[in-house]
Amino acid sequence: MIAMIYKRKRRINGVVKEAKTYTARIRLHKDDPMHEVPLNTSDKQIAQQRLAEMVREMEMEKAGMLPPKSIREASKKPLKEHLNYHLDLQESRNVCAGHIFQIRSQMLRLFEACGWKTLKDITASGFESWRAKTHLSAKTKNNYLHCLSCFMKDMEQDGRIMVNEVRRIRPVKTAGKETFERGALSPMQFDKLVSVSGERAIVYLTAGLTGLRKNELRLVEVRDLNLDAIEPYIRARASTTKNSKEAFIPLTRKLAGRIKEIVPANARPQDRVFESRISDMPTYYKDLEAAGIPSITREGKRIDFHSLRKTFGTLLALAGVPPQIAQRLMRHSDPKLTCNIYTDAGLLPINETIHKLGSLMEEWTHKWTQMDTQKLVPDGHSLSASVHAGSADGSKQVPGSEAVEAAFVLMSPSLSNVVGWCAVQGSNL
């Protein structure tokens, strides 16, 4: 072990000068790194006393009898200081100012409601007790948990806490407990909104035809655009996306042309494309009003800016896009999110589809009843016309599978892609 105090020396203009205060040099074990710590005293006895205290603390830390110094110091600081550090990190991650403000508000309310003053006060049982008593919605409770989890994760990564108790807390189930449901715009409403919005039209059009979130749109730069390619796209950088993964968002050629019109000829690569045109929520609601679109539908669904992303998901469903492709375009990790949350079932042509299916089934039944049963069943066998014993190669067939496949293809030509994809995957429709 090495444990000593000394005064640093340095040469200035050929003259060796000694520091006025002492420095400690410590290494407990030969495999440990050397630590040099300023003692900030010129008194040798005080310096030796501080050295002895430091050696004792380091030995206790190594034996697990004492938390590291960084944790002990962090536990003495007020939570607001740690929160400011966390928010600075969020800002460096390109989180928008509005979201940072929301995080600050929620965390300060949570600290006060739970009576937390320092990091050591934050416990899983304290949060769960508050959550059980509060009358907030299930989704809002989960938002608080998400904010707290992100905060504690940063504290853990920076070495300010030893154990992250919040990690074991599970979110509450939200199914059937939603306080509101978000709606989507119909194609006619979407077209009307774009037509009355002036310079903001390109923002709404891009959001509704790409599914980009508001903050992702705000951070799109000129260098992220590839509008002259055969297949134009917008690159969503990993630092700007919700899941922190890079994505390439395909564009229709018309949309690419509209975006190209708003990019100045002298634009720099780092200039933001949509930021100056993105409206605040009061302006967005005024645009809805000008287009004759209620902000709350008759079914009680809310139409906000994020509804444009749901509009994109619904338009994909209306176009008959296969669920797997829709999931990729929406950049969802779970297909249930695409089909259940980001598709407005109220805008889908469910009744019309059933009517088409009924007509096709009647046509199919009439066709098969008129056919010669002798061609379907060999002489001497008693199999009915609607059952196949097997194909020539011995494989089993589902009764009427060809007709069901034809029904899906005839209902929508684009659904033929679904049938083909399912056939490849070995699925049965």
Look up the CATH topology of the largest domain.
hpI Integrase, Chain A
SS-based class: mainly alpha
Q: Into which percentage range does the β-strand content fall?
A: 5-15%
Span of the ends, CA to CA: 74 Å
Q: Which whole number gives the mean pLDDT?
A: 82
CATH superfamily of the largest domain: Intergrase catalytic core
CATH class of the largest domain: Mainly Alpha
Give the ordered list of helices and strands. Answer: EEEEEHHHHHHEHHHEEEHHEHHHHHHH
* Anisotropy-based shape: elongated
- Report on the biggest sheet: 3 strands, antiparallel
- When the domains are counted, the total is 4
Radius of gyration: 33 Å
Report the helical percentage: 40-55%
Adjacency order of strands in the biggest sheet: 1-4-5
Unreliable runs: 380-429
Tell me which CATH architecture of the largest domain applies here. Answer: Orthogonal Bundle
Number of strands: 10
